[in-house]
Write a structure and sequence with these properties.
The complex is a heterodimer of chains A (99) and B (552). Chain A has 99 residues and is mainly alpha-helical. Helices cover 78% and strands 0% of the residues of chain A. Chain A has helices at residues 4-23, 27-52, 56-86. The chains are: A mainly alpha (99), B mainly alpha (552). Chain B: It is an enzyme of class 7 (translocase).
């Protein structure tokens, strides 16, 4: 199968993720959409890696996974602490500092 | 498509030929990587200290480790620069991952000094009143406990402190040291995350106003992760365009001077959409980090909500690191594309300068005011970036060094002005501060004058250098806009000075806490650098000028 099709899929997944970040209101869901964007990047890396016939892209995919895992640790810690003090994980409720 | 056939042959020939009998060990130049390695090692050591040293002595152990590490790393940077690694011996190390050259060493030195000053403000323990006989700093007793809950009260009573901030600071610094020196896109991305993740956590750790602090952390985290996803997709597209992660190879492909063109590369090289979209997404991620309009939305909220020592450190050091990375991307990777990125950066710089200066006028909170001022300053620095001349690089380096010390000093002063609820950040409470404590008000006035770019302060020398470089680089209209927005910005800086010195102090106004020598040192260094760089900038301008050549 033509690897370019995987790029179209990656772009589609990335767009879905970005749209989700912009329209969803729950911090956890927003965060999951960011993870979807990172995975779309991974798919693009692997597809490009195959097109170019070098392994750089596949190596980067591993690094991205590790970074995404680290981000989950930090992100969930922050979101859970916000949820425990407010009993809400809505990003709209967090507006103490609006002008 | 011909590319797929080539890939299959690669896979099959690899299987048919001899299996890989040995893998050569990578060559790592430990000496030239010493500054980063020292800081990473100390950060790991800090985690161990957190695990094994008794709570009573942890603070002192962490302080010791952090101070020694930052000082040693700075000494290593100076030694490397003295050995000529910034000029004649500049080169690419660690198998092409890191560049050791003038701009990298200059920015690493700046970041390390800034981090040292920031560390002093982190360690300050005399500003808050003692809680149950224990001295407390600006960080939560126990970050995991819910604000106002019993477990928080217990933690405060037991005298807990979050000494994890010191290793977190060191991890962030290690990312910042790599960020401007990264020489391939993977290193750039990993450094971006290593510098960001600790900062997200640090933002959530304030002792007072914890809800606001957590809110700031969530906003910073979600927007930061969103921006880094865009950066990563940009990296993916640039990799797809050039078939390589290395800055030098990508630059050759962009220029069209690449030597051996495989069929797959010939195919993707012709696709300008990959290059343009990839470069745009990558630069967007960096502009988010420097806080340029239209990617600035996080700046005011995060600067206001984060603990003030963290805000000062973040505002100063992150900006230095991110501008370093942006310079390298634009000057080393994408010079062949400059006719495309220059107009875009023109627009970004103009909007950033004007929006930062105009919106700052309406602010009533001193930390938000400084946040918008930092946005305006990002615009001024971008004007130097656009110059695309050697003097553009050196002027940006000088501006960053000058700006970071002013910022960290200004936020250190903000930690001193306090009332019952902690820091009194509302501007109305600063009225008449100059009559109550003339010294603190005078010091803050010096910082504000430096922000405004009044002569005899470092702000003037920096702005002059940047605007001169921009004008010589053919961006004269940008200089006009820059001067206009400087004038707008000067209005609200002067307004704060007038408020401090020429209005009646309120009877229930805030008090100025007497800090320990730590914060005094931080503020003293800030004032000293501001005045020295303002009165006698020549030596430092020459230093930045000597350092202003990228290795490729």
């Amino acid at each position: 199968m033509n690897p370019v099709n995987y790029l179209y899929l990656a772009a589609l997944l990335f767009t879905i993720g970005a749209t989700g970040v912009l329209i969803r209101r729950n911090a956890i869901v927003v965060f999951m959409c960011v993870e979807l964007m990172l995975n779309a990047c991974n798919l693009a890396f692997v597809a490009f890696s195959r097109m170019h016939g070098n392994l750089d892209g596949q190596i980067i995919a591993f690094f991205t996974m590790v970074v995404a895992a680290a981000e989950v640790v930090v992100g969930l810690a922050i979101i859970v602490s916000l949820f425990r003090s407010r009993h809400s994980a809505s990003v709209d409720d967090a507006s103490l500092m609006k002008l | 498509m011909s590319a797929t056939a080539a890939v299959h042959s690669l896979w099959t020939t690899a299987a048919a030929a001899d299996p890989i009998s040995r893998i050569d060990a990578p060559k790592i130049e430990y000496g030239q990587l010493a500054p980063t390695l020292i800081v990473v090692g100390a950060a790991v050591l800090g985690v161990l200290v957190e695990a094994f040293v008794p709570r009573r002595t942890r603070y002192y152990a962490q302080m010791f480790v952090a101070v020694v590490a930052l000082a040693a790393a700075f000494a290593a940077v100076v030694a490397l620069a003295a050995d000529g690694y910034g000029t004649t011996k500049a080169g690419i190390v660690a198998m092409g991952a890191i560049a050791v050259d003038g701009p990298a060493l200059f920015l690493q030195g700046t970041i390390l000094l800034t981090a040292m000053v920031g560390l002093f403000t982190f360690a300050e323990r005399r500003l808050d009143p003692e809680a149950h006989g224990n001295r407390v700093d600006s960080f939560a007793a126990q970050a995991a406990s819910v604000p106002g809950s019993d477990s928080e009260k217990k933690a405060v009573k037991a005298g807990f402190t979050t000494t994890e901030v010191f290793p977190l600071l060191l991890f962030a610094v290690s990312g910042m040291l790599v960020f401007p020196a990264a020489n391939d896109l993977l290193t750039l991305f990993v450094a971006l995350e290593v510098l960001s993740l600790p900062l997200y956590l640090l933002c959530a750790l304030a002792r007072r106003k914890r809800l606001m602090s957590q809110e700031a952390a969530v906003k910073y985290f979600l927007l930061g992760a969103f921006a880094s996803a865009f950066t990563l997709f940009g990296i993916a597209l640039l990799y797809g365009y050039s078939g390589s992660m290395s800055y030098a190879t990508i630059a050759q492909v962009v220029d069209g001077t690449v030597q051996d063109v495989s069929p797959a590369l010939a195919d993707t090289m012709g696709n300008d959409a990959l290059l343009l979209v990839g470069a745009a997404l990558l630069v967007m991620g960096l502009l988010f980090k420097v806080g340029a309009v239209p990617f600035h939305m996080w700046t005011p909220d995060v600067y206001q909500g984060a603990p003030t020592p963290v805000t000062g450190f973040m505002a100063a050091a992150t900006k230095v690191a991110a501008f370093g990375a942006l310079l390298r991307i634009l000057y080393v990777v994408l010079p062949g594309l400059r006719w495309d990125w220059r107009p875009v950066m023109w627009a970004v710089a103009i909007v950033t300068m004007l929006a930062g200066a105009i919106v700052a006028i309406t602010q009533t909170d001193i930390k938000r005011l400084l946040a918008y001022s930092s946005i305006a300053h990002a615009g001024f620095i971008l004007a130097g970036v656009i110059a695309t001349t050697p003097s553009g690089i050196s002027s940006v380096l000088f501006y960053l060094a000058a700006y970071s010390f002013v910022t960290i000093g200004a936020f250190a002063v903000v930690t001193l002005v306090r009332d019952a609820g902690g820091e009194a950040t509302h501007l109305s409470k600063w009225a008449g501060l100059g009559r109550r404590s003339p010294l603190v008000a005078a010091v803050f006035a010096v910082f504000l004058l430096a922000f405004a770019g009044i002569p005899l302060t470092s702000g003037f020398a920096g702005k002059f250098a940047v605007f001169k470089a921009a004008a010589e680089g053919g961006a004269a209209p940008l200089v006009v806009v820059g001067v206009i927005s400087s004038a707008i910005a000067a209005f609200f800086y002067i307004r704060v000075i007038v408020l401090m010195f020429f209005s009646e102090p309120r009877p229930e106004g805030p008090t100025v806490a007497v800090p320990s020598p730590l914060t005094m040192t931080a503020i003293g260094v800030g004032v000293a650098v501001t005045v020295v760089l303002g009165v006698a900038p020549q030596y430092f301008l020459e230093l930045a000028g000597d350092a202003g050549v990228f290795v490729r």
